[in-house]
Amino acid sequence: MRLLIISILFLTGNMTLITKIAAQEKSDTFKNLAKKDELPIPKEKGQLFYLQRDPNSNTVIYTLNLEEGEIDESNPVSAHWIRYAEDGQRSSLSFIQRKMAYGVHHKKLNENEFDIRIQAYKDLAIRLKYNKHSEKFQAFTKIENKEVVLEKIFVRIVGGSLFKPNVEYIEVSGHDPVSKSKISHRFCP
After folding, report:
1. Tens digits of residue pLDDT in 117-176
2. What value does the mean pLDDT take over residues 95-107?
3. 53, 158 in Cβ contact below 8 A?
4. Angle, helices 15-31/2-11, rounded to nearest 10 degrees
5. Which residues fall within 8 angstroms of residue 65, CB to CB, at 6 or more apart?
6. Which structural domain range is residue 15 located in?
7. Which of 3, 90, 103, 149 has the smallest number of Cβ neighbours within 10 A?
8. Angle at 136 between CA 132 and CA 140, to 5 degrees
9. Whole-angstrom Cα distance, residue 77 to residue 168?
10. Same structural domain, 22 and 74
């Protein structure tokens, strides 16, 4: 219906009203965006990093997958939801979420070292390896050509569809493995 009204306005040359409608739609879209600085910070057992995105506080947690105290080489990283917007329920990723969005693909590089890629954005190289400074396995990525311990990923989504969201930016945050100083970087995919 809205498209029909805009088409009629366009044909009649009423560009001022079309501009006002477009501005209102953009305003309505931005009202529903998550306030990333107000999102909960999860602390799960074995947590490597987490991913948050619009339009709500639901969070994907990526954890180290151990089997009898050793990394499960067939599945070194597990992912699950904490549905903060639904009373903090924990749930598994759906098949589509695992295969097309938040699931991970891995490749063994060395003993206890893996290349991890998130399905929806395989260009982000994440390396799971042992950090001698923290004495535990952690996820590492590069931010501005510096290797950092990955803590969180935030994806700003403005419109689009379920299968093709319009990603405005991705923000990757972490800390220096030795000094612990915080580092973040925002980029457009």
Report:
1. 999 999 999 999 998 888 999 999 999 889 999 999 999 999 888 778 899 999 999 999
2. 95
3. no
4. 150
5. 46, 71, 72, 75, 76, 77, 78
6. 1-31
7. 3
8. 80
9. 27
10. no
What's the one-letter identity of residue 29?
A: T
Instruction: Say which residues have a Cβ less than 8 Å from residue 140's Cβ, sequence separation at least 6.
Output: 126, 127, 128, 129, 131, 147, 148, 149, 150, 177
In the structure encoding, which two tokens stand for residue 108, read together? 């063994």
Q: Give CA–CA dist 171/154, Å, rounded.
A: 5
C-alpha torsion 63→66→69→73, nearest 10? -130
Mean predicted lDDT score pLDDT of the chain:
85
Where do we find the tokens 């499960």?
Answer: 72
Read off the tokens for 160. 């689009």
- C-beta of residue 134 within 8 angstroms of C-beta of residue 176: no
Q: Quick one: 7 and 94 in the same domain?
A: no
172 and 83 in a common domain:
yes
Q: What are phi and psi of 54, to 5 degrees?
A: -70, 155
Q: Which pair of structure tokens corresponds to residue 33? A: 């965006």
Q: Are residues 60 and 145 in the same domain?
A: yes
Using 50, 70 and 90 to split pLDDT, how confident is the model at 110? very high
Containing 114, the helix (H) or strand (E) segment is strand 113-118
**Count of structural domains within the chain:** 2
